[in-house]
Amino acid sequence: xxxxxxxxxxxxxxxxxxxxxxxxxxxxxxxxxxxxxxxxxxxxxxxxxxxxxxxxxxxxxxxxxxxxxxxxxxxxxxxxx
Length: 81
Hints:
Gyrase A, domain 2; alpha+beta; 2 helices; globular; single chain
């Protein structure tokens, strides 16, 4: 997955076959985020999930926490294909 860094955040969009697949992905990401103690800002519309990552307690900037969670999310997405 390609993440872009704009406006002090990492951004990516993930596409799935349908809403159920997208929601299942969000559930897996939620568990990974909770384990990391780092939570995404995201939206879901039908089969698309948009995620933004930034570290709020570091002044809303991109930190190693964001890159680590992005890498974990990429692994979860790769597992759906």
